[in-house]
Amino acid sequence: MTPQKILLIQGHPDPLIPHLCHALEDAYAQGAESAGHAVRRVAVAQLDFPLLRSQVAWESDTLPPVLGPAQQDMAWATHLVFFFPLWLGDMPALLKGFLEQVARPGFAFKSDASNPFGQKALSGRSARVVVTMGMPALLYRWYFRAHSVKSLERNVLGFVGMSPIHETLVGTVDKLDEAGFKKWQAKLHQLGVAAQ
User: What is the CATH number of domain 5-194?
Assistant: First the structure.
């Protein structure tokens, strides 16, 4: 297997208490590093950046300096893994604000007069989305149609060229016992080994 350059983006907005998302990220990182992959991490909750409030700001303002290293890590990576809890049916607002800041024109995609969708500037990268939630994962996938995850995959990651994009949905986390926790750790460890 060719060693990959993996960027782990921790989207849990609470910087103080380790959560399940952090344990899953650690398991993935340990698996990836044990297989010889290079791993970098971004903890969104530890970054202090403003939210974008206009299209003009998104297109014309400079990237906040604190986000420069994260953007450089995205350019470096061949595989990106996003970890976040489902909040009100979607990713936490802080993670959305982070993506809006870093996925700017000129970096994540480039204008192309012949193509209304522009040029996908982050092509050649794969991704995985790992989401924890209180509801059963099957309910979220089939009844709610995993709408927010699908939106992230199609309208953000796919739009800038990432493919393939896989997902791991961890449901009913409030009822997760020690055996269940270890099962998910092992699963994420194996995904890290395979760089998937």
Answer: 3.40.50.360
Three-class SS of residue 39?
A: strand
pTM given for the model: 0.95
- Given a contact cutoff of 8 angstroms between Cβ atoms, the answer to whether 192 and 38 are in contact is no
- The set of residues, in sequence order, having a beta carbon less than 8 Å from that of 24 and lying 6+ positions away, is 83, 130, 132, 170, 184, 185, 188
89-145 pLDDT, tens digit per residue, is: 999 999 999 999 999 998 998 776 666 566 899 999 999 999 999 999 999 999 988
Question: How far apart are alpha carbons 166 and 153 in whole angstroms?
Answer: 9
Query: Please, which residues bridge with residue 106 across strands?
Result: none
Contact yes or no for 29/192 (Cβ under 8 A): yes
Question: Quick one: how far is CA 167 from the chain centroid?
Answer: 10
Domain boundaries of the chain, sorted by first residue: 5-194
